[in-house]
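Suppose you are handed a protein chain with no further information: no name, no annotation, nothing but its sequence. What can you learn? This example shows the usual starting point.
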Amino acid sequence: MPKAAPKKSYTPGDFNLKVRRARTGLGLFAETDIPKGACIIEYVGRVLTDEEYDRSRSRYLFDLGNGKVLEGATRANKARYINHSCRPNCESEVHKGRIFIHAIKKVRAGDELVYNYGKEYFEAYLGENCLCPKCSPVELAVAAE
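A reasonable first move is to predict its three-dimensional structure. Written in structure tokens, the prediction is:
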């Protein structure tokens, strides 16, 4: 009989995380190792009304499904500093109307936490200007040498 997958945790671990300068502005970095599969942090904010959403110019919007959108621009939301990457080490997941960030591989102390923001955000805001390590011309030039 195949082994059942371990139940996913939606309680963020007690990881030391620090906001500091990154390639694309500010980023969120692990100060300690984080194991693969760990729940790292919750993306928090407030749910917008339809009218607030229509007027919003925020780039910290997160679709919760069922027509609800969370706006996480508040600086109290440390997860807002997690940058996009086309080669992520984390992923976001909506669980019971809340957003959690999980490690999809081991994250070593000193690594920046990054996840893929998704096709819609990528096409609207990043596209050919993506600065993640996979897409950055600096990284591509170094790799070509």
